[in-house]
Amino acid sequence: MGRIIAIANQKGGVGKTTTTINLSACLAEKGKKILTIDIDPQGNTSSGLGVKKDELQYTVYDLIIGNCNIADCLIKNIYEGLSLLPSNVNLAGAEIELIGVEEREFILKKEIDKIRDEYDFIIIDCPPSLNTLTINAMTTADTILVPIQCEYYALEGLSQLIHTINLVRQRLNPTLEIEGVVFTMFDARTNLSLQVVENVKENLKQNIYKTIIPRNVRLAEAPSHGLPINLYDPKSAGAEGYRDLADEVIEKR
Ligand code: ADP
Ligand code: MG
Hints:
Residues 3-178 form the AAA domain. Pfam families: AAA_31 (PF13614). Belongs to the ParA family. Dimerizes in the presence of ATP but not ADP; ATP-binding is required for double-stranded (ds)DNA-binding. Interacts with DnaA. The protein contains 12 helices and 8 strands. The protein is an alpha/beta fold. It has a single domain, classed as Rossmann fold (3-Layer(aba) Sandwich). Strands 3-4-2-5-1-6-7-8 form an 8-stranded mixed beta sheet, with helices on both faces. The chain is globular, with a radius of gyration of 17 Å. The mean pLDDT is 95. Bound molecules: adenosine-5'-diphosphate (ADP) and magnesium ion. Adenosine-5'-diphosphate binds next to helix 1, strand 7 and helix 10.
């Protein structure tokens, strides 16, 4: 059975979307069957994978409010081995529409359970908040992967995230685990990046990936071409980083 990994951190700009796109693509490159799920209304994972998000007939939003079946909104094999459940700004309305809906924390899980056997990994990009959509990702997931940006306030908000994960484990998803923490945007030229890594290692009990994703301008450029890094610039430091992370994620099985 496939492993479902939610990429979560309620801080914006820490590399959730970049990690979702490129971990998904690098796992697919290694021959794994991947489903990527975009549950952020910003839809950056969808556009970063080359999907024209505003021209879609159905998205995760329609799936969540019961407007379509999973087959209607699934985009199969965008790249070899990588399929996508896309999102766009419509999803911003879901939070309100779900008020009072029974079992609203499990809507995504019920849909994904129908198809999870078809994939080796399912990677979910979460929005930058701890809202109903993120909770849906956490009830669907087996594990949570937390990207941490190598900057001064790296640990800010992390205890709140871990508290939320613990609550979800107690009340909604007893087998939920923290997959691990991955450092992103590491700048080898600054002492700050090194200090942040040391500080987090000292203060965090969670599993920390050996792979550290470097700050690499090619990673920032790739989404505007609608390509994951392994296709946009296969030899870049960013591509190497996400390939190494994919190896570690596979090894952990
Ligand atoms: P989040 O989804 O957590 O908000 P993003 O993945 O969108 O974060 O990243 C925020 C910004 O930083 C984006 O413009 C992205 O292109 C850029 N970025 C992310 N990771 C890197 C990296 N390793 N090197 C350079 N730029 C990066
Ligand atoms: Mg994002």
